[in-house]
Design goal:
The protein is of the alpha+beta class and 298 residues long. The chain is built from four helices and 14 strands. The strands form three sheets. The chain has a five-stranded mixed beta sheet, with no helix packed on it. Strands 4-12-7-14-5 form a five-stranded antiparallel beta sheet, sandwiched between helices. A four-stranded mixed beta sheet has the order 2-9-10-6, covered by helices on one side. A hairpin with a 4-residue loop joins strand 9 and strand 10.
């Protein structure tokens, strides 16, 4: 997801140290508990046209995207100490702690695939109910430095829709797609910080059971050689928003973007967004993170 937000994240004391290790985190207070912050939701194109977003630089004369934002103050509750209350099947997100990793640099994509991907595969097979097979299709590293290639996304979105999830199966396992599409398939993002504990911007995610189908709007996601689909999310006061305060490098959030089995996983998508925490301590480092995206079959 590369949509950027015109609404600045509240990080004024943070970006001077963005991307640096937490260092003195032991003496710096980590904001915890409920917080009110602004989230940027989808607003339809003013001309009534179908929404789109260019992944890379758009053609000359075309905007990066043609839709707007609805910025709303939202209460975001902390799941720290309540982790067991939320599961992939019921809420479309799940938290896991005490996960070691042999990868620490996260600067070499091939090493990430060789070392980190197998760790994520084991995690998914062990923790996702019914999972029998995992196929990775990409990962994104986000850093808070001003010159970063990919920065935290401050716009509420869902990475996949029903149509793009089916296309992902056909694209990444074409020889088996007809068979695999007859069974249960999910798209799950595995998200973790690289320089925890996280101060700013944390990741907010909505309980999927509080998100209505009519809140979700498909957005054409234009790559240089093909188009996919992501989803914008309209604000709904019934939505319930959460974050995991002070996430550390050995903690993982599983974010379910799609679930083909509406009986076992009726709430098959989780809106999410970076958000600015107004309680961020002076001099706290900006958040770096990685998300790995996987097709999970079974």
């Amino acid at each position: 997801m590369v949509i950027t937000s015109a609404e600045a994240i509240h990080t004024s004391p943070v970006h001077s140290l963005a991307g640096k290790p937490a260092g003195d985190a032991g003496t710096r207070s980590i904001p915890r508990g409920p917080v009110s912050s602004r989230l940027s939701f989808y607003s339809a194109p003013a001309d009534g046209s179908a929404p789109f977003n260019y992944v890379e630089t758009p053609p000359e004369g075309r905007p990066q995207r043609n839709f707007g934002e609805n910025v709303v103050d939202v209460e975001i509750n902390d799941i720290r100490g309540r982790e067991s209350e939320f599961t992939l099947d019921d809420s479309a997100f799940e938290s896991i702690s005490n996960i070691p990793s042999s990868e620490s640099d996260f600067t070499d994509d091939e090493r990430i695939k060789r070392v980190y991907y197998p760790e994520v595969e084991r995690l998914l097979l062990e923790h996702v109910r019914g999972a029998k097979r995992v196929v990775f299709f990409d990962h994104t590293i986000r850093r808070s430095t001003p010159d970063a290639n990919r920065r935290p996304v401050s716009f509420v979105h869902i990475d996949q829709t029903a149509s793009s999830a089916q296309e992902r199966v056909q694209l990444h396992v074409p020889d088996e797609a007809d068979t695999l599409l007859q069974g249960r398939y999910r798209i799950i993002n595995v998200w973790r910080p690289l320089n925890g504990p996280v101060y700013n911007p944390p990741l907010a995610f909505a309980d999927g059971s509080t998100v209505r189908d009519e809140d979700i709007v498909g957005v054409e996601h234009r790559y240089p050689h093909r188009s996919g689909e992501t989803a914008g999310v309209k604000y709904n006061p019934e939505q319930r928003w959460y974050y995991w305060s002070g996430m550390t490098n050995d903690e993982r959030i599983l974010l379910k973007c799609y679930d083909s089995d509406v009986a076992k996983g009726p709430h098959g998508r989780v809106p999410h967004s970076a958000f600015g925490d107004p309680r961020t301590p002076e001099g706290a480092p900006g958040r770096d993170s990685i998300e790995v995206r996987a097709l999970v079959f079974g």
